[in-house]
Amino acid sequence: MYHRKRFRSVKFYSIPNRQKRPRAETRCGCPARMQVRMDDELGRRYVAYFSDEHNHSVLELRFSSMLPSHRRMSEVDIEQMNDIRKGGIPVSRIHGFMASLANGYYNVPYTTRDMHNVNAKQQREGGLDAESCLRYLREFKANDPALYYKEVVDGEGMLQHLFWCDGTNKIDYQVFGDVVAFDATYKKNIYLSLLVVFSGVNHHNEMVIFAAALVANEKEETYA
């Protein structure tokens, strides 16, 4: 549907108690249109009428990739974005990197908002990864009864926090747990979760892990 044709309905401007700011007006009664009909005998469609007369300025062809109907990320772009994000690079800088590879922002057929939308979709679908992780811990516990883990989910059943330590971790803590180091990485994975590591040093001056956790935030109640 052509977003410049006709005019916005008058009733749109008289909505009582409007909560949101109205979107910018885009319709201007542009006469450009195309009519397609069906030829029943040939079983194919044909263009019955076409007019490219516009009453407004037309976007330059080189910027057409930025139209909402044209913007999309390919699977290759998504994989490349995910790989770069593992290094902790923010989306805005990744978009700039993609633009430099494409010789200009107008050659990148998506915006930073599109990239954030893809990230959000991946996080929503990440429930499958969470279930795989919990399944692995359940199977691991069958071989290591001393393994302890606990998960916390939100109201929609999405995994928020996960804590775990195995039998070896517990023994190391009993022997070398006089001093415990607490360190949290800041959203270095594609799920934007913080990895919390509890560690210490053994009698060989080597680091040992006592426990680890993935948390969605750093609120006080999360660490309680």
How would you characterize this protein structure?
- By secondary structure, the chain is α+β, with helices and mostly antiparallel strands.
- The chain is built from 6 helices and 7 strands; from the N terminus they run ββααααββαβββα.
- Helix content is 30%, strand content 22%.
- The protein starts with 32 loop residues before the first strand and ends with a helix.
- The longest helix has 17 residues, at 127-143.
Descriptive labels:
224 residues, 6 helices, two-stranded antiparallel sheet, alpha+beta
How do the strands and helices of this protein lay out in sequence?
Layout: E1 33-39, E2 44-51, H1 75-85, H2 91-101, H3 112-125, H4 127-143, E3 148-153, E4 159-165, H5 167-176, E5 181-184, E6 194-201, E7 207-215, H6 220-223
Antiparallel strand pairs: 1-2, 3-4, 4-7, 5-6, 6-7
Q: Taking Cα atoms only, what radius of gyration do you get, to the nearest Å?
A: 27 Å
Low-confidence stretches: none
What class do helices, strands and sheet pairing give?
A: alpha+beta
Series of H and E elements: EEHHHHEEHEEEH
In short:
This protein has helices at residues 75-85, 91-101, 112-125, 127-143, 167-176, 220-223; strands at residues 33-39, 44-51, 148-153, 159-165, 181-184, 194-201, 207-215.
